[in-house]
Amino acid sequence: MRKTLISGLVIAAMAGTMASPAQAVTDRFFLPYPAGVTHTVTQGWDGSSHNGSYTRYAVDFGMPTGTTISASAPGVVQDSYLSDGWGNTVVVKHPGGRCTRYSHLSVRSVDVGAKVGQGQQIGLSGATGHVTGPHLDFKVENCATGLAETWSFVEYSGSLDNGSVTGKQLTSQNKPGAAGGAARDLTGNGWDDILARNSSDDKLYLYDGFAPGKLASPRAIGTGWGGTRIVLTGEFTGDADGDILGINTDGDMNLYAGNGTAFSAPKLVGTGWNSMKSVVTADFTGEGTNDLIGIQEGSGDLYLYAGNGNGTFSAPRKLASGWGGQTALVAGDFDNDNHGDLVGRAANGDLNLYRGYGNAQFSAPAKFSNGWNGITALIPGDFTGDGKTDIAGRTSDGTLNLYPSYGTTLGSGVALGTGWNGHNLYQS
């Protein structure tokens, strides 16, 4: 994939200006019950009771009362209520303005505003509301209007029309994953993306992930980013949509809040960050919000800034010393245990994994890979869609390779594209 650049006027500013990304929506939903469990579809799209604009794209699963119901994708609980028709219902908002609705539950296990991870229990099946027996009614809808929308299951590629899917037994692959949305998904389609600043025009370019190991052609989403030295992507504001943090050369940290289709104007959320030589993000504290960790220039001390879930961060807390020897640092959930980890590059080129325990504490380093001194940029993200953070690495000739995480080690590099030497800043 050769990069193509969009020419235009460069606006010089310490805080870059943003354009709107193209709209995309999550379309990767796991079956709404735990991995390895099988249930039978009792009604599909346009079935006898799925015949209105709010219900036509629902799917019913027959199951006994008290069966575990799992979130089909990470997100934030938008609604949790009891009604005459739907019974006990939970609605989860996902990136891009799509919601999943789980109805006729006997128990609701989550409250409005709670972040939920993929595969997390959100309730138990039942027979509340207008039903003839215990089952789960599941549908995907527009969060703003409630209108039903088409979608597909990860585990089943066939038609969900009533005549095709009714009677089929579907086995789930829905394993627990990270809360609050795909960590670096800025467009709301369920795949992590890459942000990069071009060295010739200081524009910020988005490479939209859309399939395992696949990136769309770049498009400019911001200008005037020449004064930025660190860019972070993640869900920082508690709405399940991907956001951007930019730290400029003055040490100011600006938040660009995303909604899956656009970004806000920059909002100053911190100062004094020019003392940090590296800053990375993941949920290090286990509270379901993205935190920040930075290595202080000079001292090599490691500091935690716990996320508050509203785009702000707590005062720094020193975690450790002796981190000044790291030549690169990235973060994510590399082993898919729902805890933020660190990966640091040592002076000898080894990558070491520091497993997070979910309480801002980390394991002793374990070798994750070697031979990384020839890699000129490390870019974290779940680019394979398996729930584990991978690393994309740029070589000296401008080739970008994907190194998939296997939990305890990184796999061999697979080329994602060439011509990446034209960028001089990536998300960290």
From TrEMBL:
- Where does the M23ase beta-sheet core domain lie? 57-141
| InterPro entries according to UniProt | Dup_hybrid_motif, FG-GAP, Integrin_alpha_N, M23ase_b-sheet_dom
The protein's matches in SUPFAM superfamilies, at most eight in alphabetical order, are given as: Duplicated hybrid motif (SSF51261), Integrin alpha N-terminal domain (SSF69318)
Q: Could you list this entry's UniProt keywords, alphabetically sorted.
A: Signal
Q: Which residues form the signal peptide?
A: 1-24
* Gene3D superfamilies, per the entry: Glucose Permease (Domain IIA)
CDD domains reported for this sequence: M23_peptidase
Q: Please state what the protein is called.
A: Repeat domain-containing protein
Q: Which organism is it from?
A: Amycolatopsis xylanica
